[in-house]
Amino acid sequence: MTITAPPAANTRRARRDQFPRHPIPAAETALAELAIANSNGLAPMVGERGSLPGLVLTPHTAGQVLRYTGNWVLTHVRSGRRVSPSASFLHTHEALVWLENQDVDWDRPTEDILADPDAKSAFHDLYFAMRRAQDDGRPLVYARTSWVLRPPLWRIRHRYVVSAEGFETFEDAAALAEAACEYPGSEPLLYPAAVILRDLQPAGWGLRCSSIGCAGGETWIPDDWTGNAATGARAELAAQARVRGWAEHDPGHWTCPACACHYPQSWEA
Question: Is the pTM of this model over 0.85?
Fold first, then answer.
């Protein structure tokens, strides 16, 4: 007799995972339930909490029969009213960062906010700043400048010959030297007597993405040979960036192709 296990969907654990009965703790989710205000009434919505209490990022809806437009807005939780124009998710996230610098408390009743001239000024200033950013096809807020002078590289010298390959950190060079000590002959022209040294001059300029979308691990123009961040003259890197689909917003700010597509240029008046 052959005994087979029940289908995965019919096991007790599978049913428990598919139909959970316990709520997720609030600390483990950035989602918030609210009602958004429309011209024809209130509608249920789920928003994403950010770093500014009282405001959440919500999908933008429009139409006589409400439908998602694909854009996002900042919404005041207590009233369900919009605080920012509809825009891409990155632009809306930047609007949240923009408002953080306005020193306005949004976690208040609507009446208090409407009576606050600073809140009213921030609302109007954000509207025009967002429109200008959309018209120009650029970020509303930059996370960083794009051009960075790269520090000198580390290299390995053996018998008065210095390696052509450079390393961005001492640890990277030391790891290769350690491998040569443990396994002599494993690396061509590298033996335990090798010495780690550092260049006297900076490696050159590097170009990185300035968008908040690359925060925590910003994208650099890669080197074709090593895959690490490319270094060189600014004009050379700028030419490479344009060929690879990077967008130049001004002399100091560029966005990588993955982020640039979130900043479509608006042609609306």
Answer: no
